[in-house]
């Protein structure tokens, strides 16, 4: 494993690209045959080097589990019209003491 490969593995997993198995499942459901999911990384500056990555089964399975949990959360929010996020109330806001005293 090279440093470049390690950095891309971290980058891809941080961006949740590892949920690709759900994408593959969706494509197959639409009748599109997919054998593998390959990420192509291209540098933004010359010499524009290119590197291809094929995810292993563990990578894809973890992503699938994560993506399906997200879909369950979304489905529940649509059903109940309760969306996660900040509390549904007005929060107090006050100036710091040093502003109030003119310090």
Descriptors for this entry?
two-stranded antiparallel ribbon, 103 residues, mainly alpha
What does this 3D model show about the protein?
- There is one protein chain.
- The chain has helices at residues 3-14, 20-29, 57-80, 97-100, and strands at 38-42, 50-54.
- Helix content is 49%, strand content 10%.
- The protein has one domain (3-80).
- The model has no long low-confidence stretch (mean pLDDT 79).
- The protein has 103 residues and is mostly helical.
Q: What is the helix/strand order?
A: HHEEHH
Strand content: 5-15%
Q: Report the mean per-residue pLDDT as an integer.
A: 79
Number of strands: 2
Shape call: flat
How widely separated are the two ends? 57 Å
The biggest sheet, with number of strands, parallel, antiparallel or mixed sense and barrel status, is: 2 strands, antiparallel
Number of helical regions: 4
Structural class: mainly alpha
- The strand order across the widest sheet is 1-2
> What percent of the residues sit in helical stretches (DSSP H or I)?
40-55%
Uncertain runs with pLDDT below 50, 5 residues or more?
Answer: none
Describe the protein's topology.
Layout (H helix, E strand, L loop, with lengths): L2 H12 L5 H10 L8 E5 L7 E5 L2 H24 L16 H4 L3
Antiparallel strand pairs: 1-2
Summarize the structure.
The chain is mostly helical and 103 residues long. The chain has helices spanning 3-14, 20-29, 57-80, 97-100; strands at residues 38-42, 50-54. The protein is built from four helices and two strands, in the order ααββαα.
């Amino acid at each position: 494993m090279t440093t470049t490969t390690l950095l891309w593995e971290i980058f891809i997993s941080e961006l949740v690209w590892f949920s690709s198995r759900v994408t593959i499942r969706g494509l197959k459901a639409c009748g599109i045959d997919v054998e593998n999911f390959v990420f192509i990384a291209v540098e933004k500056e010359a010499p524009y080097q290119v590197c291809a990555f094929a995810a292993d089964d563990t990578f894809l399975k973890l992503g699938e589990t994560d993506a399906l949990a997200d879909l369950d959360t979304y489905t529940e929010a649509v059903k109940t019209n309760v969306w996660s996020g900040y509390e549904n109330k007005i929060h107090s806001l006050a100036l710091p003491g040093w502003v109030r005293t003119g310090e």
